[in-house]
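Chapter review: from sequence to fold.
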Amino acid sequence: MGDIEKLENRVTKLEKHGIGKILVQYVLSPVLIIAVGTMLNYKVDKNKEELQRLEIAEGMITGMFNDESPYKTFATLRIMKNVLDELLYEEIKEIIENFYANKSKTIAETDEILAAAEQVGGEDVNEVARGIMSDSSIFVELAQFRKAKVLEEEAIDDLLKGNIDGAIAKLDSTSKISAEFEQSPVLAKFIEENRDSLEDPLRREKVYQQILKNPNYNLQKNSLGNLKKRTANRK
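The token string follows.
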């Protein structure tokens, strides 16, 4: 036990008898008083530092679970590793692992989470991803989903280029590849019904807007983004 720690214990015992303060002020040598002051200031500064870290962590955690973006969650987790002490960080990481492993999610959401983990990188983030992929059946579903997603993106690209037949054929095919795209034939039917408007440069933008505003078509984010970009550029 160091001298300062021994001294701290002595002062604590004396304070219980109401004489510690008097001894510190009048009996202890100036050198020891300085030592005690240094020790106490160190403890105060250390506590302030820990408090600041906890406040930062609290703000980060709020953002991680209020925000729907797994990318933000994983990026925040990586930052936390440099902000928090190891014990607290490991506890928070475990909470995040359990959150994503047990979260009720569609294959589309699983794909988004894994894509975010790949973008952010880092061993701890990859651990979260491995927890999500613990069920081997997900591999097959995920592969089918990603294949259908690419086909849907190509369908929207065909639509924007005026290849209506190509768009309809690809949308019909996506539902046969993955159950996540069961609404694609409904969109294909809508496109067929509005073929005349889509072939008219003055009216096709209105059809695009109708597609964007209808959540029942369940377009994936990339497809929606491409369609929104096109309509935004036309304004």
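Two observations follow directly from the output. The chain is about 80% helix and 0% strand. Residues 69-134 form one domain.
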